Amino acid sequence: MKQLAKDHGQCLITSPNGAVWSLTDAQSSGWSEISGAGVPAGSFFVSQSYIDLAGLSIDDKTVFFDAMTVQTGMPPLLVGAGAESNFRVYDFMTSIPIDLVDFCTSLQYLQGIGFGTPGQQLNFENVHYARTQYYATDLDFNFTVPRQTSTHQHGSLGSTASDRLYVYRIVYASMVLGPGATTISLTLPPARHLVLASVREEPDYVYMMRLKRSYDLQNEPDRD
């Protein structure tokens, strides 16, 4: 069994009104704003990368995922936000790249209907791990430590013959200014996508079909 990991840096975004956000580049290594047709400016930000599986799948072996998780060492920090402010953090590990513009412009995704469920951009086979976290302001902590109101997790943990596992961490915020505040700032702590995987040799015909399926999915996202 092998332990694989991909780290995401801290993310700091600020806003004068809670609707349009700016990324503080010096404190947000590896993060960028998602832009494209139909994507509201200053609303979605992403840290994306991939885990190289080529070393595991060498010698025509199939990669089996035994466990996946996301680790963080502290909660998000929120300053200057008023009541009814909220934000969402999405974590994905997939066998094919995500169309980020499609993600940001689809109301279904914003409503929390996750990847890997019927009618979505990626189907169950593509999504090995997905988690959505919802946060809101908390009067008990004076809006500094937001309360996690819910978390939702799903994914196939399916095997793959692909040589890459794509990893994403996305944040979307919708807030209002708190009394006396002139700026809202949201800081997401560094995070780690952690994977435990093993490799096994399958019969040639099974491996070849799995390999073909992996490459087909990478070249053209499956829209079941």
Q: What does the model show?
A:
This protein has 224 residues and is mainly beta. 12% of the residues lie in helices and 42% in strands. It contains 3 helices and 13 strands. The strands form 3 sheets. Strands 4-5-11-8-9-10 form a 6-stranded antiparallel β-sheet, with no helix packed on it. It has a 4-stranded antiparallel β-sheet with strand order 3-2-12-7, with no helix packed on it. The two termini are 32 Å apart. The model has no long low-confidence stretch (mean pLDDT 84).
Strands ordered across the widest β-sheet: 4-5-11-8-9-10
The helix tally amounts to 3
Overall 3D shape: elongated
Low-confidence stretches: none
Task: Please report the distance between the alpha carbons of the first and last residues.
Answer: 32 Å
How many strands, what sense, and barrel or not for the largest sheet?
6 strands, antiparallel
Oligomer: single chain
SSE arrangement, N to C: EEEEEEEEHHEEEEEH
The percent range for helix content is 10-25%
The overall average pLDDT, rounded, is 84
Strand content: 35-45%
Q: If you compute it from the alpha carbons, what radius of gyration comes out, rounded to the nearest whole angstrom?
A: 19 Å
SSE layout:
Blueprint: E1 2-8, E2 11-15, E3 22-23, E4 31-33, E5 44-52, E6 62-72, E7 77-79, E8 86-94, H1 100-105, H2 107-110, E9 127-136, E10 147-154, E11 164-174, E12 184-188, E13 191-200, H3 204-219
Antiparallel strand pairs: 1-13, 2-3, 2-12, 4-5, 5-11, 6-13, 7-12, 8-9, 8-11, 9-10
